[in-house]
Design brief:
Number of strands: 0
Structural class: mainly alpha
Order of helices and strands: HHHHH
Helix content: 55-70%
Largest sheet: none
């Protein structure tokens, strides 16, 4: 059932749009120059690096259990791709163009599901490693990435609650 026409918000009106020779203000640029230096961005980069190292460690080692390590590879690569996607969304400010998606909520849900799957994959990989150094290292980096994802859950939840509470009181 349709609830009627909704309100469409834009960042600038047609009367204040910069001309062809005018430089764009820092808030209107495509690339966010401040985001890569924020704690959330550095945490995403640390997660991507640890997930990549975990994937490479497991991929380059002889496997003792095909199903356990193929699951570990799938989980690490899927998490890596999704974290990279969220990083790019924030870096290129795509959340301004795609307002139909609740980005804090989607990031929180991704981290909840991804962390749970990564923790399960790391536990299974550690239990099936049989003291092979590459598999043990992959499992350890999987646990480190799980810890970093838990930190991101906490930050996402904290940001979501603070944003929600300020919208209610304002």
């Amino acid at each position: 059932m349709s609830q009627g026409a909704g309100l469409v918000r834009t960042t600038c009106s047609s009367g204040s749009a910069p001309g062809p020779g005018a430089a764009a203000s820092p808030s209107e640029r495509l690339l966010d120059p401040v985001y890569p230096r924020t704690h959330a961005a550095l945490l995403k980069v640390a997660q991507m690096v640890t997930l990549l190292i975990a994937f490479i460690c497991v991929r380059s080692s002889p496997w003792t259990s095909y199903s356990a390590y193929s699951y570990f590879e799938v989980v690490t690569i899927c998490n890596l791709i999704m974290i990279l996607a969220f990083y790019l969304v924030h870096l290129f400010r795509l959340y301004r163009a795609l307002t139909c998606i609740s980005w804090p909520l989607s990031e929180l849900l991704h981290y909840l599901i991804g962390t749970l799957l990564l923790l399960i994959a790391s536990i299974v990989a550690a239990s099936k490693s049989y003291s092979q150094s590459g598999l043990v290292a992959g499992a350890i980096f999987g646990f480190i990435a799980s810890f970093l994802c838990l930190a991101s859950i906490w930050l996402s939840y904290k940001i979501s609650c603070v944003t929600q509470s300020t919208e209610v009181t304002a």
